[in-house]
Every structure is written in structure tokens, then in C-alpha cells.
Design goal:
Blueprint (H helix, E strand, L loop, with lengths): L13 H6 L5 E12 L2 E13 L12 E11 L2 E9 L9 H11 L8 E8 L2 E10 L17 E3 L5 E3 L9
Antiparallel strand pairs: 1-2, 2-3, 3-4, 4-6, 5-6, 7-8
């Protein structure tokens, strides 16, 4: 299920729609602005924004995944796909950030970068979030040297890899 898509009209409340279900997504109709130390970039078309998480989705402060049409640069990080962590279960908002920073400092392979951001929707401030690079395999990602394994379909219909391959555990 690709989720429910909204019909946009003059009274459309994007945030209410996005938070009414984690499968809901808005695609192609949202426009964003990214502001950092380098200034404000308003040419940031949002390709898709949707809820993320399982247990965290049921908390008052919702986490999201955002995919931009083109790469955007945010305080030295560059990419199309981002996760906005709400850190709703951590009043200090620091636990995840400390672990991300520690992983980068000790040189862990595939450690993603993150920044604290203020998140606004339709001009309404929704709080401080942790913006992170989305964990995915493939070109222009945190793991550019990992690729989907080559597979074949066996007689029983099972799809199996044709050779050893790297994988991600979550």
C-alpha cells in the first residue's frame, strides 16, 4: 500500500493530513525552504513527505521521512532523502545525536551525519528535530559502495542471491 494521497484545495491542512496516519504521504505538491548558515534556499521542491517509525509514530511529536526532487544541501550535508527524528522520548534531545557523533568520530563505516533543525509546516513551528541522512544502499547515499544483490528465481518461486552480498540490519 503506497498510502493515501491528499486532494489539495485552498483549505488543505498538510500537517493534519500527514499526522492522521503513518502511511499517508503527500507527493509533488509541497514546497519547502531550507535555511542554514549559508542563507535560505527556497527552490526545494518536496517530492514526498510521510510518517516514519513504528512505536514512535504513536507519540505526540511525529517523526517524518522527506524526499526532495533534487539534492539539497543543509549545513554541509547533501542529499535527496532525509529523516526527521522527533526524539520525543528523550527530553534532552541529545541521546541519538551523541551516538551519531560518536560513530562519526571513531570512524564507523556508514555512520550518517545529523543536525538539529527547527521544523515548520505552513508557518507553524513544530519543534526541534534531528535531521539525518536516510540509511539506504546505492549511489549518492550513506552507503554508496553497497548495491542490491543479484538474484535469480528458483523453480519453487523463491528469489535467492546469486553470490555473497552485503546487507543492513535494523
Amino acid at each position: 500500500d503506497a498510502g493515501t494521497k491528499a486532494t489539495v484545495d485552498a483549505t488543505f491542512d498538510l500537517y493534519a493530513f500527514m499526522t492522521s496516519g503513518s502511511k499517508n504521504q503527500e507527493a509533488g505538491k509541497a514546497q519547502g525552504a531550507v535555511a542554514d548558515a549559508d542563507g535560505v534556499s527556497e527552490d526545494t521542491t518536496v517530492k514526498k513527505i510521510k510518517g516514519r517509525g513504528n512505536s514512535t509514530w504513536n507519540l505526540a511529536k511525529k517523526p517524518f521521512n522527506i524526499t526532495y526532487k533534487d539534492n539539497v544541501q543543509i549545513d554541509g550535508m547533501k542529499g535527496k532523502k532525509w529523516s526527521l527524528l522527533a526524539n520525543a522520548q528523550d527530553a534532552s534531545l541529545l541521546r541519538n545525536r551523541l551516538v551519531y557523533d560518536l560513530a562519526n568520530e571513531v570512524g564507523m563505516k556508514y555512520a550518517c551525519d545529523s543536525r538539529f533543525v527547527d521544523f515548520f509546516v505552513n508557518g507553524e513551528y513544530l519543534g526541534s528535530y534531528q535531521l539525518t541522512q536516510k540509511i539506504e544502499m546505492g549511489k549518492n547515499t550513506v552507503m554508496p559502495d553497497l548495491e542490491e544483490p543479484l538474484t535469480e528465481v528458483e523453480e519453487e518461486g523463491d528469489v535467492v542471491p546469486t553470490a555473497d552480498f552485503d546487507f543492513i540490519l535494523e
